[in-house]
């Protein structure tokens, strides 16, 4: 059985790569998932997806367009689908932000996934978002989303996955909703994390084993300012700019909320904290020993992307793609 996969908000290709791996592990002659089409609003992200999933940077099955302007008929002309994946934008549901939920600019975009479900009626779907979705709009947004998915014809199973429990070297917690079409005699069960109980999920193991090749793509160092280097020398593993004992001239003049990841060093024996794609200086994730931010390749390893998965675009755009991706 081959499942043709369509993707909305596809990102750089984490879900598609995971689908490829799953097809290889299960049995390529039995059940496999193949790429049908994918869409994203960011041009460089589409190039990354196209290069790594389709084998060419400008595949016609990868559409660069705003989902609010994209016609379903355009997708239909490319291919029918048996499965749909959509990691709808988390901006309005994340605890880092204004948390406008369903009332924000991005909150309602999940409806485009519902529209595609109703139109194509794939056998199953996977939707992903941040853990804050459960509490957005006092929990009403989450209930509305689950209701709309059910009314589209699917039995849904939402679950908050703690990825470090599944062998991932990062404390990344995400809600994944799996839906099976109601007319099918198939039920989805949340996979057990027990097979990964003894996995080494330390960030040091992920970054250093094996060593990153000197000519690896996306591995350029950030040009750290003298002040940042001085500040990092006073910050121990696990500490940030507010918990470390910093000299007064190196302290940050920040009023209000003090985000715990600002200039935070990794703890080498533990999973990394959440890799993000947004934020300015101080949010780039910092090495436990060296006085520098991680390279994009090191961040990609914490997201479990292999070293031959190449991210296109500027260094900042690559960082955004890596942080916003659903890891494979």
Task: Give a quick rundown of the structure.
The chain has helices at 14-26, 43-54, 72-78, 110-120, 140-151, 203-208, 226-233, 296-302, 315-324; strands at 2-8, 32-40, 62-64, 83-86, 124-130, 154-162, 173-181. By secondary structure, the chain is of the alpha/beta class. The protein has two domains: 2-196, Vaccinia Virus protein VP39 (Rossmann fold); 202-328, DNA Methylase, Chain A, domain 2 (Alpha-Beta Complex).
Question: How are the SSEs placed, and which strands pair?
Answer:
Blueprint: E1 2-8, H1 14-26, E2 32-40, H2 43-54, E3 62-64, H3 72-78, E4 83-86, H4 110-120, E5 124-130, H5 140-151, E6 154-162, E7 173-181, H6 203-208, H7 226-233, H8 296-302, H9 315-324
Parallel strand pairs: 1-2, 1-4, 2-3, 4-5
Antiparallel strand pairs: 5-7, 6-7
Which keywords apply here?
single chain; 328 residues; alpha/beta; Rossmann fold; DNA Methylase, Chain A, domain 2; seven-stranded mixed beta sheet; 9 helices; 26% helix; 15% strand
